[in-house]
Amino acid sequence: xxxxxxxxxxxxxxxxxxxxxxxxxxxxxxxxxxxxxxxxxxxxxxxxxxxxxxxxxxxxxxxxxxxxxxxxxxxxxxxxxxxxxxxxxxxxxxxxxxxxxxxxxxxxxxxxxxxxxxxxxxxxxxxxxxxxxxxxxxxxxxxxxxxxxxxxxxxxxxxxxxxxxxxxxxxxxxxxxxxxxxxxxxxxxxxxxxxxxxxxxxxxxxxxxxxxxxxxxxxxxxxxxxxxxxxxxxxxxxxxxxxxxxxxxxxxxxxxxxxxxxxxxxxxxxxxxxxxxxxx
Length: 280
Description:
Layout: E1 2-9, H1 14-17, H2 24-44, E2 48-53, E3 68-71, E4 75-77, E5 88-90, H3 93-105, E6 110-113, H4 120-129, E7 137-142, H5 152-169, E8 174-180, H6 197-208, H7 212-216, H8 220-223, H9 233-245, E9 249-259, E10 264-272
Parallel strand pairs: 1-8, 2-7, 2-8, 3-6
Antiparallel strand pairs: 1-10, 3-7, 4-5, 9-10
């Protein structure tokens, strides 16, 4: 069955760590959005989950950061933070090592790592979407912290490469991709706590229009109005590249353009087969 679905969500840490900061109605709406995504993930019945996220100086420093990295471990530890589960998350070494080899043969810069610590960028969506942690997770990290960043076209290419890899080498495996990060926010500077709702809407509109060339052509200058944290949209672009390669179509599950207290916009999207092609 190969790639059967994809999910995108923000991973703002206050969603898990200080939920009470948000107005009750919006907090409830976000919880309902995660409930729906969790139900969709259950319906998709994945054998493997591939997460595509940023990380927050948990694994890489400026002198050794690859543009893209994937853990080849049989399990990866979480980073205990924001009240998220402190545990080992099962991986799939065979799938991950095969992906690194596949990328290498195409001279794509995906680096295999023996292990990755999974901070809130990966663990927050897993906690809400698969709290049982009972499906192997292959975590991919996209460098969105240290310039120079991989281009958005490279991020999109990684998604397409992932789709080809699954189609060619894991055709009987049900794979779901979770892209997580962004959208607009500033981190560790005088704009910390701000966001840009117009930027978020602009990016979501491109995704919903299924405009691959527009996604591939987004520049660092285009991202600047969304803040330094908005470079995390590369993770959504990778996920979209994979989903589009196999004909999945996007649907907005939740849009909360601004949640006071958390100081972010919360968007949740899912990519699935068109209704007429879905399994009964």
